[in-house]
Design a protein that fits this description.
Blueprint (H helix, E strand, L loop, with lengths): L36 H11 L10 H8 L7 H10 L4 H4 L2 E10 L5 E9 L2 E8 L4 E9 L21
Antiparallel strand pairs: 1-2, 2-3, 3-4
């Protein structure tokens, strides 16, 4: 029986050596500069933030995490909720606060609170979409006690 080499196929020693002919520039070589490359490099250098730290500054972190801290957001929200105040029922606005409501599961909810001549108004406001989602009106004659002081977590919980 004839072998593969006898049928005309080239054996290992008869095969021509493989040669590599590069079609383009080798990957280790830098590409030739094109027109405007220096200008683009200067623009990119000025566009990059000057902060080279791995952690963003605290202010940038807060602005990204809390929508209310973005410039103009709180003033827009106050204008929106003041437009919802009924002057005949509530009277004129005396003060505005941004409060954080913390429930027993430690979930934080931001609320805009307005005090007027006759009412305490609590607004659930969406700072992303700029709309009021809920209004809670509490007549001031129903308020019998106001507590003020520092907020603190309990020292022990049921989980510890």
């Amino acid at each position: 029986m004839p072998t593969v080499a006898e049928e005309g196929a080239l054996g290992e020693e008869e095969q021509p050596p493989l040669s590599c002919s590069p079609v383009g520039p080798e990957p280790s070589l830098p590409a030739a500069p094109t027109e405007g490359a220096e200008e683009r490099a200067e623009e990119e250098a000025t566009a990059l933030p000057q902060h080279t730290s791995a952690e963003p500054p605290l202010d940038q972190f807060r602005i990204r995490k809390f929508f209310v801290l973005r410039p103009g957001t709180l003033s827009q929200a106050v204008r929106d909720v003041e437009a919802l105040v009924d002057g005949t029922v509530d009277g004129s606005v005396r003060g505005v606060w941004l409060m954080a409501e913390v429930d027993h599961w430690n979930n934080e909810k931001e609320r805009l609170v307005l005090i007027t001549d006759n009412s305490l108004l609590v607004f659930k406001y969406d700072f992303v979409m700029f709309n009021c989602e809920q209004i809670q009106r509490i007549a001031l004659n129903f308020v019998d006690r106001i507590s003020c002081g520092k907020f603190s977590f309990p020292k022990h919980s049921l989980l510890q």
